[in-house]
Write a structure and sequence with these properties.
The chain is built from twelve helices and ten strands. The chain is of the alpha/beta class. The chain folds into three domains: about 5-85, Orthogonal Bundle (Arc Repressor Mutant, subunit A), CATH 1.10.10.10; about 90-160 and about 265-290, D-Maltodextrin-Binding Protein, domain 2 (3-Layer(aba) Sandwich), CATH 3.40.190; about 165-265, Periplasmic binding protein-like II (D-Maltodextrin-Binding Protein, domain 2, 3-Layer(aba) Sandwich). Strands 2-1-3-10-4 form a five-stranded mixed β-sheet. A three-stranded antiparallel β-sheet has the order 8-5-9. The chain starts with a helix and ends with a helix. The relative contact order is 0.14.
Length: about 290
């Protein structure tokens, strides 16, 4: 049986992205070209690979088997090319995604020693709050995220627990006479959103008698903006604790309600299963796990 390797690679990409649109974008083809290649491959093999009776994209049993076997083949090809690139000083490309604040404050600040120790690895960064789709579409190779993701194609590696804290400037605390949680009624809360979903880890930790009003809310769409607003006495902020350690140490901001056991988020590393055992990915993940929040 003779099979066109280009069509096989198209199938492998389609099965990995689970989308004709993303597959076409990744291979710089039209969707009709992708569809034609898959149908021709099915004709050559004599069985269907894509379950077209399913409302969502789904492979047939034959398709799942072929995808698994293709993964082993194409991964070996990629590993061989990576080894050749290393010998010729051509860097291995890894695209790393993270939320903006964690990416800029932790990952990028801690990356210099890794890149110096592994000159054959080149890392590009996408700092964005929405990371799952780019990872599934192979636009990213690894992501670090506090949003839980469960997907059959992904491996999840625990990284750390992200602690949160309520912050305000000393002037604001004095001006609003903040002594208890109920005093937040007369404060402006700084949040990613008007409904205070951003504050859920704090609100969910409170008992019913600790409730406070939501009337004055200033929406700011990133953590650094919330911190700067708190520094300027524009209100009370809620942020990952590691992002304000320096400001707290210098007395520019103070932590409020430290005895309240605020719920934490689990930060995980996610990557495709096929990349989990590749040495370059192991090296980068090992370095990320060694980074300290400071």
């Amino acid at each position: 049986m003779q099979v066109d390797l280009n069509k096989l690679k198209t199938f492998y990409t389609l099965a990995g992205t689970r989308s004709y649109t993303r597959c076409a974008d990744k291979l710089c083809l039209t969707q009709s070209a992708v569809s034609h290649a898959i149908k021709k491959l099915e004709s050559d093999l004599g069985f269907e690979l894509v379950d077209r009776q399913n409302r969502h994209f789904k492979l047939t049993e034959h398709g799942e088997y072929l995808f698994l076997q293709c993964g082993r083949i194409f991964d070996r090809i990629e590993e061989t090319l990576d080894n050749l690139a290393r010998e010729k000083d051509h860097p291995i490309q890894i695209n790393l995604g993270a939320p903006p604040e964690f990416g800029s404050s932790v990952l990028i600040k801690g990356m210099a020693s890794f890149l110096h120790a592994y000159p054959h690895i080149h890392v590009d960064f996408l700092l964005d709050p929405l990371l799952l789709e780019p990872l599934l579409a192979d636009e990213l190779d690894i992501i670090v995220d506090c949003v839980p993701h469960v997907h059959e194609d992904l491996v999840s590696i625990p990284l750390l627990r992200e602690e949160y804290t309520v912050i305000a400037s000393p002037d604001y605390i004095r001006d609003k006479e903040i002594q208890s949680i109920r005093d937040l009624d007369r404060c402006t809360l700084i949040s990613f959103d008007k409904t205070l979903i951003w504050w859920k880890n704090f609100i969910n930790a409170l008992n019913e008698e600790s409730g406070f009003g939501f009337e004055r809310i200033t929406k700011i769409s990133n953590v650094r903006g919330i911190i700067n607003a708190a520094l300027e006495s524009l209100g009370v902020g809620f942020v990952p604790r590691y992002t304000v350690l320096k400001e707290i140490e210098k007395g520019l901001l103070k932590e409020l309600f430290s005895r309240t056991e605020v719920l934490n988020d689990q930060i995980n590393i996610y990557l495709k299963r096929r990349n989990h055992d590749k040495q370059a990915f192991k090296d980068l993940i090992g370095h990320i796990k060694s980074l300290k929040l400071h």
